[in-house]
Amino acid sequence: MGQPPHPVRSAHSSGFADLQLQPQSGGHAVIARNLLAGPVQIRLQGSDARLSPAPRVLAAAEQRRLAWLPANGPGARLLLDAVPGAPVARPDDVLYRLPFAGGKARVSQAFGGRHSHNDAQNHYAVDFPLAEGTPVLAARAGVVMQVLDAATGEANLVRILHADGSMALYAHLQAGSAAVRPGQKVEIGQRLANSGNTGRSSGPHLHFTVQRNAGMALESLPFRMADDRGELQFPREDNGGGD
What we know:
Elements: E1 8-10, E2 17-24, E3 27-34, E4 40-46, E5 56-58, E6 63-70, E7 78-84, E8 95-97, E9 126-129, E10 135-137, E11 142-148, E12 156-161, E13 167-173, E14 185-186, E15 191-194, E16 205-213, E17 218-221, E18 224-227, E19 230-231
Parallel strand pairs: 1-7, 8-18
Antiparallel strand pairs: 2-3, 3-6, 4-5, 4-7, 9-16, 10-15, 11-12, 11-14, 12-13, 13-16, 16-17, 18-19
């Protein structure tokens, strides 16, 4: 049938989902594929008027036909947006555990930090200065949704999906240190990887945040956390470095 006349471009997906064109019935089916071991909300847009921009949720590893384009039709530019998580999530009030063991917790940047915690995805993130190679532990039980362990120029990370639909992000991890795989269940305190200094990082640290899908947009959530001494009190509007 030859190459389809419909160029495909995927943007804003960050490896969450991709598009494929498959020959079908004298044209090409537009197939979206969830790349994560958890739900992903997607929205297909394009220059073809027959395409529906209504967001849809794909289950873990699901593939779904979104549209059909005739082989002899005009070229169409396709754009796929993808956001991890299901927008129906209603996060619970949970006391998270410190995601590493030993010593007093130090914070270089906390909620609303002006250095880089000034967008919706990271406003309620916390940066913990840690020596490279420090074991990073699960702050809450869940299922491993995403692992980036050898990213080039990006922060290596582990994303954990919780029972209430919220997600914890552990970022700037040491390359090659992941101890878990997508789809694996993890318990609180289980080692996920080692802390590192990957991606856009001004120094070795762990970037931790809890997020939800607010409807085709990631939103960070305020959270409570405790170590062996009790609940932590995070500073706000910190000027320190970190992420």
